[in-house]
Amino acid sequence: MLNLNKEAKLAYTMLIPTISIVFLIILFPIFGNFWLSFKEVKLGDLRAPQPIIKEKLKTKDIKAGDDVLIEYRFKNSSQKKSIFNIEITDKISEFISPVEIAEGCSVNNNLLSCYFEEWKPKYNEKIIFKFKANDNFEIDNFNPKESKPRGVADADNILTNLKFSLKNFQKILQKNETIENIKVTFLYSFFATIGALLLGISAALLLEKNFLGKGFFRGLFLFPFVSPVIAVAFTWVYILDPFKGFLNNYLLNNEFISEPIFFLGLKKVNFLGFDFPFTLFIVILFESWRYFPLAFLFILARLQAIPKDLYEASDIDGATRIQQFFYITLPQLLGVISLLFILRFIWNFNKFEDIFLLTGGNAGTRTLTVQVYDEAFALSNMGTASSVAVLIFILLAIFVFIHQKIAPKDIEE
Amino acid sequence: MTNNIYQFFFIYLYSIITLFLLAVIGDFVSISIFLSKNIFIYKNIFLYSFLYAICFFAIRIIITNRVSNIFIFVISLALSYFFLINKEINAYQLLIIISVFIAFNLMLQKYFTAKNFSNFLFEVSFLKFLKTNSLIFFSFIIIFPFYLMFISSLKSQMVLLQNPTDLSIPFFYSISDFFSSYIAVITQYNFLNFAINSTIVSFVTVFVSLFFSIPGAYAVARLRFAGRSKISSSILVIYMVPAIVLVIPLYVIFSQLGFRNSLFSLMIVYPATTIPVALYMLQGYFKGIPYELEESALIDGCSRIGVILRITLPLSVPAILSVSLYVFMIAWNEFLFAFMFLDNQEYFTIPRGLYTQLDDQEVPRQYLMAGSVMITVPVLLLFFIFERYLVGGLTAGSVKG
């Protein structure tokens, strides 16, 4: 009865806007990222070299029949690259006619057009064009700056040319820092995920049963997650501040410590003979604090879906509460926990803002995402930045692949 | 019997921890906030409660079950206080401790007087204590940063520097002093402008992403076409793409096209990143609407578009509301793209403005906290008003964070 073909057509029309915007803003940039990672692009290369032309009237008090000198200044905007096939056009006043103009230029119908083959880097020249004032010359209406000269040129744009090199990858892989950052990223993603899951499971178990004020607590527990990251990160930074912060002053006043602790600036603390990454630990705590609500919500929803007769049956068999937890609740939650683990792991792996705002990537907390930022804007090297991003992308693709293999059924729930 | 002793001991251990936590919270609430006093010596409270527990425990073992609990309670309280007679615990603080003790003894009584203190009862009591402690713990770790953010924003620079551990709300200020940081942030740091920018960007993002995702979601949920399953599975994959991978090429492309430093750039990027989420959430909801409703309308000669406008959309108002709220929050909270794309102050969104204008060692901290409160309050307000929808939306759409 329903026309299938028509239906499919309608479906495609409805999906086209979505697909195109996703393609433009997500898939195309991913491709662009790969493209950039094989190019040695610096931040300064983003502006393509172009011709700069300025004109200046050299003669004063012109009367009909006089020579009119106009100085044109030609300049290549780039200090490093040549530009080619420069075409310049400029409208000239109808009151003057050309007498002597530079080679390569001609005037047609009051239109000056010039053509140059190549301007070398740093090319900067002043050429004087000689015109003659016509008989109908009117000084009041004469204004050579009336129209701005325009120039177009071909430049070898590093962004679009087809030269590729592997130097970016070579550079980042040669840095000792990169390997260290990969390690930090893994530690951070893994433990922040575990922390968020543990807190989430405990919170969900707390609110499993109905009691007065449950709705309030459920709302409250979501606070860290829905609040803007910048506000909570700054608050944490303020609390942990070594001199002005609450925590250090509190501990000092209570004589728990004798001098302030730099919570966000201690790379390593010797703890029982091995180096404990202290600041990374604090950042992981922050991450667990901020993202446990997500785990909490999912696990709570799943907990409430567990059939109650399972518990009743085990009560009759004499199972204790702790046994019930380990033999009924936990196995029932395993699916959602594993799904959450992978999702959270991937998202933590992608996280940039949190670490950037807390420590700026200092004190042993530089993850790969922070490295991307540093390469691009601190070292002004877009090429190496995108090659780090490619590294992230490849590692992620592996996780997503695993995720797709492990948990396709759970998503449908 | 020995087994019971261990169990009692465990219960006491837990009661001590609860007590300690309650004392800390009680102190924050009562002493710091209302009396505006400085910190309280928790080491002593902990010692005190520990001594109390040991006394109670010892007497309990010596005197057996038959004596009234109140009697034991009084003796142990007296004994433990005797040990601490010269320590710095004032009457007010003792009052807190005693009231907490009474509450706990009432709770404990149930278990101690039970004839068979079985494993089951032990576990029930154990879990109960664990639960109370954890609720206190969770509430504390969540509320505390927000509370500190709020009160710091109300204080003057001098008070903040003199006494960073003071947690009281400065009620004695006049109204203009009370909000002086907020006024300064708005007048000196151009915050109103940032707020307007943020609002514009967020609303446009909500509108655009609904406009794109509603038809898309309907198509994925209802219509049969080749590649449907591929599209619905790739939505989630797209949603895993890290923003940091997109930001460098988008920076380059937008710089070349010349609209990097503008609100327009955010208005393109935000919807693109939220559309997959919105689409995923909506198609889940659309699938749940009974198809018979739409089918009967189709048979009656209504067109597809008519069905969507007259049946599907009115039925999915809660889902659309929750999606819009969720998208609004993402756009409102977003930092990375705003940070990378915007250079001019006139285009700053609140997170961008907060980062550049106020996160500076020379800017007083109370201004930074006032800015943080101003960005957090709208989100939390929205969240509280529409919590029911949002929680539904969050669980339905496996949220990006």
Q: What's the topology here?
A:
The complex is a heterodimer of chains A (413) and B (401).
Chain A: H1 4-37, E1 51-57, E2 67-76, E3 83-91, E4 96-100, E5 105-108, E6 111-119, E7 124-133, E8 150-155, H2 167-174, H3 176-206, H4 214-221, H5 223-226, H6 229-240, H7 246-253, E9 269-271, E10 274-276, H8 278-303, H9 308-316, H10 321-350, H11 353-358, H12 368-378, H13 382-406, H14 408-411
Antiparallel strand pairs in A: 1-2, 2-7, 3-6, 3-8, 4-7, 5-6, 9-10
Helix pairs in contact in A: 1-13, 2-13, 3-8, 3-10, 8-10, 10-13, 12-13
Chain B: H1 2-35, H2 42-63, H3 69-83, H4 91-113, H5 119-154, H6 157-162, H7 175-178, H8 180-188, H9 191-222, H10 228-238, H11 243-257, H12 263-288, H13 291-299, H14 304-315, H15 317-333, H16 336-341, H17 350-358, H18 365-385, H19 387-396
Overview features:
heterodimer; A: 413 residues; alpha+beta; Immunoglobulin-like; MetI-like fold; 2 domains; 4-stranded antiparallel sheet; 14 helices; B: mainly alpha; flat
Explained architecture:
The complex is a heterodimer of chains A (413) and B (401). Chain A is of the alpha+beta class and 413 residues long. Chain A contains 14 helices and ten strands. Chain A has helices at residues 4-37, 167-174, 176-206, 214-221, 223-226, 229-240, 246-253, 278-303, 308-316, 321-350, 353-358, 368-378, 382-406, 408-411, and strands at 51-57, 67-76, 83-91, 96-100, 105-108, 111-119, 124-133, 150-155, 269-271, 274-276. In chain A, the strands form three sheets. Chain A has a four-stranded antiparallel beta sheet with strand order 1-2-7-4, with no helix packed on it. A four-stranded antiparallel beta sheet of chain A has the order 5-6-3-8, with no helix packed on it. In chain A, helix 8 (278-303) crosses helix 10. The model of chain A has no long low-confidence stretch (mean pLDDT 80). The model of chain B is unreliable at 33-40 (pLDDT under 50). With 401 residues, chain B is mostly helical. In chain B, helix 1 (2-35) runs antiparallel to helix 4, helix 9 runs parallel beside helix 12 (263-288) and helix 10 (228-238) crosses helix 12. Chain B has helices spanning 2-35, 42-63, 69-83, 91-113, 119-154, 157-162, 175-178, 180-188, 191-222, 228-238, 243-257, 263-288, 291-299, 304-315, 317-333, 336-341, 350-358, 365-385, 387-396. The two termini of chain B are 52 Å apart. The longest helix of chain B is centred in the middle third of the chain and has 36 residues, at 119-154. The radius of gyration of chain B is 29 Å and the shape is flat. Chains A and B meet through helix 1, helix 3, helix 4, helix 5 and helix 6 of A and helix 5, helix 9, helix 10, helix 11 and helix 12 of B.
